[in-house]
Design the sequence.
């Protein structure tokens, strides 16, 4: 497995590891696919600025590095700005992750979103009825349908846009589901006639 120097640095010397006893928000997520667990604590001031963030992660080097850099990315940001951070932002900040480890960045982003949602009194996404087509990468049916609406018409195009098929299972579980969704939306193109 090839990790770049930045991932190794954040794994070997994680920033902001620990807990905040009087945290204003806590987000906890886990992946049934790989067993990784992440918990992020946030200290938020009266203006909605994240003043401190700490994490504890049970997982691999990618999971620890993703959690660590994610906390650095949100400290000093308004909660609405921090809520917009995606797993792709985390992967970019780390200088890349192996494809089968992208789900670690998804968990880090989800932990941030979960903490902020709890702070705002919003119902966590997982407690609502969410249909994950790609469970490894937490890609929903809605995200796949949005990719199709924006012009994706193959599994590869959907994978490029959403990250589906790039998790632990390598697309074994989700590719047939994506193909079924594509069939539902398939419109014959001129070259198919």
Sequence:
């Amino acid at each position: 497995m090839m990790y770049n120097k930045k991932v190794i640095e954040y794994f070997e010397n994680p920033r902001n590891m620990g807990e905040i006893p009087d945290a204003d928000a806590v987000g906890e997520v886990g992946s049934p696919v790989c067993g990784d667990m992440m918990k992020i604590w946030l200290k938020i001031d009266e203006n909605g600025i994240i003043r401190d963030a700490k994490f504890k992660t049970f997982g691999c080097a990618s999971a620890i590095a993703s959690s660590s850099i994610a906390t650095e990315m949100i400290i000093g940001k308004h909660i609405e700005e921090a809520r917009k951070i995606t797993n792709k932002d985390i992967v970019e900040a780390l200088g890349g992750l192996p494809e089968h480890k992208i789900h670690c960045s998804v968990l880090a982003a989800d932990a941030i979103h979960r903490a902020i949602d709890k702070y705002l009194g919003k119902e966590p996404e997982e407690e609502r009825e969410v249909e994950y087509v790609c469970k490894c990468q937490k890609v929903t049916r809605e995200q796949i349908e949005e990719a199709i609406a924006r012009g994706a018409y193959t599994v590869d195009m959907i994978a490029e846009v959403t990250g589906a098929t790039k998790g632990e299972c390598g697309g074994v579980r989700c590719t047939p589901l994506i193909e079924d969704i594509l069939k539902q939306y398939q419109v014959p193109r001129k070259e198919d006639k």
About this structure: The longest strand covers residues 50-58. The chain has a mean pLDDT of 85.
